[in-house]
Amino acid sequence: MKKYMILILSAITLFFARATVLEAPTSKEELGKLLFFDPILSKDKTISCASCHKPEYAFADSSATSLGVGGARGLRNTPSSMNMLLQRNFFWDGRAASLEEQALGPIENPAEMNLSLDKALLRLRKSKAYSSYFRKIFGSEPTRANLAEAIAAFERTLETSDSPFDYWKFYDDSNAVDNAVKRGFILFNEKGQCIKCHFGANFTLSEFRNIGLFNGRDLNDSGRASITGKIEDLGKFKTPGLRNVALTAPYMHNGMFGSLSEVIEFYNDPNKIVPNAMNRDSIMARPLGLTVDEKKDLESFLLSLTDKRFSKAEKINVAE
Amino acid sequence: MKTTLMLAAAALAFMAFGLNDMLTGRWETRPSLKGNITGIVFKPDHTYEGYINKKPFVSGRYILKDSLITIKEYGCEDKTGIYKLVLFHHSDSLRFQAVNDSCTPRREGMTRLVFGRVK
């Protein structure tokens, strides 16, 4: 009887051991994905990267600012983690020059995961599973460098190029978008002047601009200036990319606009929304004078930048 | 002898199809060190689309006269660029030599890339 019990227990152990092996990451991208969704990197093990970079919102958050460990509230809107491959700088103020540098920032940030990197690495080293994954993939215990490398590698897999706009332009399928999108694209490039900042494969030049959301009073985030110390950088923030923008509301560095139509209203006549802005970019010196229909067309164009992985049928697999 | 024949064949192809026809179609670079592929599609209606990693980033119009291509696109503040087309390897490879383009980012991008025809 005892013999049978041992055999059965051994079989169960083997089954689970095999299951664990099957699920174990085999590349730094897979390891990065595991870490991205694991709250192990936050102080009280309640917050993961994915708590704020939610797959269903194109790896952004749906609230103006996100909650960190212990209910601490961040100061800026969570940007999307998607389409980072071609970006030159990271965070709204550009304080990270590489995705690896960016990946470690939120772990130590008191308003986010609030865990020192030393402690995070100690936790990973103490974890039998993580310790073995890192050894297998990097040939060493978890370190600051390979932790950053794994998370960044996963983030680099989050590229999207399957939107109706892509089908129209890349595959030359003029039926992929309707006429409102086509008109909106012209407005984006001409009357709307959006392209002056939102130029490129991800619709950003990765530059820093003051779009007039700084007045030194109720809007007092100094943005890029807090990194460079330059007065001319006051109120400047990185131009975000626009792929999947329909999913990443609310908008702007402080999440002050709840919808794309609000954003378009703002750009159409910034003075009407924020009359006392300081050093607003000269590109925005005059109202655009968009008509109601033009605003709708512009919004239609922005909606066409949503990748097909976010269509209802495929929503469940957005992280893959 | 072989080289002469190849040159003659290229010349005949050029005469038969013209530069416009040779240019029309999809061209792509080899992957860069970071793995990025830049491409451009020249369409028969004298428009073109540029892209990186299948992501379109520029739309414009072109005029081709002799071996000079004049381009104008969204971006670059409507500045026109003039380039000399250099087709080689039996017209399967393409380079752009800047003749006149005051849009620095475009000039730097265009002249450092070598494109191969996508068949």
List descriptors.
heterodimer, A: 320 residues, mainly alpha, two-stranded antiparallel sheet, 2 strands, 39% helix, 1% strand, globular, B: 119 residues, alpha+beta, eight-stranded antiparallel β-barrel
Description:
The complex is a heterodimer of chains A (about 325) and B (about 120). By secondary structure, chain A is mainly α. Chain A has 13 helices and two strands; from the N terminus they run αααααααααβαβααα. Chain A has helices at about 1-25, 30-35, 50, 100-110, 115-125, 130-140, 145-155, 165-170, 180-190, 225-230, 260-270, 270-275, 290-305, and strands at about 210, 235-240. Residues about 15-20 of chain A have low confidence and may be disordered. With about 120 residues, chain B is an alpha+beta fold. Chain B is about 25% helix and about 45% strand. Chain B has helices spanning about 1-25, 105-110; strands at about 25-30, 40, 45-50, 55-65, 70-75, 80-90, 95-100, 115. The longest helix of chain B has 22 residues, at about 1-25. Chains A and B meet through helix 8 of A and strand 3 and strand 4 of B.
Provide a short characterization of the protein structure.
The complex is a heterodimer of chains A (320) and B (119). Chain A is mainly α.
